[in-house]
Specification:
- By secondary structure, this protein is α/β, with parallel strands linked by helices.
- 45% of the residues lie in helices and 12% in strands.
- It is built from 12 helices and 8 strands.
- It is globular, with a radius of gyration of 18 Å.
- The relative contact order is 0.12.
- The C terminus is likely disordered.
Length: 309
Amino acid sequence: MAAMHGIIAAAATPLDDHLAIDLDRLTDHCRFLLEKGGCDGINLLGTTGEATSFSLEARLAAMRHLAESGLPLSRFMVGTGAAALGDAVRLTRAANALGFGGALLLPPFYYKGIETAALVAYVSTVIDKAGRDGLSLYLYHFPSNSGVPYAPDAVARLRDAYPDTVVGVKDSAGDLAYSAELARRLPGFSVFPSAEGSLGDAERLGFAGCISATANLTGPFAQRALTGRTEAERRAALAKAVELRALLAGYPLVASVKAALAFVHGEPRWRATMPPLSPLGDADASALAGALAAAGLVPQSEDVIPPST
């Protein structure tokens, strides 16, 4: 299967009134991102999707529902990281068996101070137990959350050991030097920084695109920043994407993305977050909506800010 590329949204996960994944609304959101939201692909059940707060069975149910939706699974990578080895294996195996374009694997994130050799052995065990036939595995480098980095040497060792399986990395550390080193060191390896600002250097540094939480909203601008016909168009679109990301990043990011989606779609249930995360309060949600409207993301309206309850 061809490696993923371009603008990939780390899709937010909608909840119902019982804090279960709203499967139909999740499917609708993914369809919107692919058809109208400017996105080349979707990272399903990642950090922005609050995946580690859902049970194994809830995650598998979401994967199966999307697999039956008729959406192009080659354009999806699924977060399959888990604290328990067996859970990571089961999720990774399911992502491959269902036909998703890739699995995005966090390192084991409870025990800290894991040495490179142990981390390589862990990922090797996931691959060997899940089955490498047809599997495209992306490594998820997010040390501020996981506490366990995918050091460049570990990435290189895994790429050398599994050249047809370990195909890329998502760098959520915000360290362009790390991403640039991997792209330079591993030709053909798909390196995805996590912020739209990196798109201005994507061609020069050899990035495959970006995987971003804020692409739930900035996708059309990010797409033009990457593929616009003229340099002026690309620069203007990049500036808008960076501006919108900065507005969203002024608040806790998962909550702000969900509040913005509630604003854009006029759907109050989007504001719900899975504990332990908390939704934005009404005052912050209104302030964010006003800022997004002023920035030209959506038209200003007095009636589009739904209450949190």
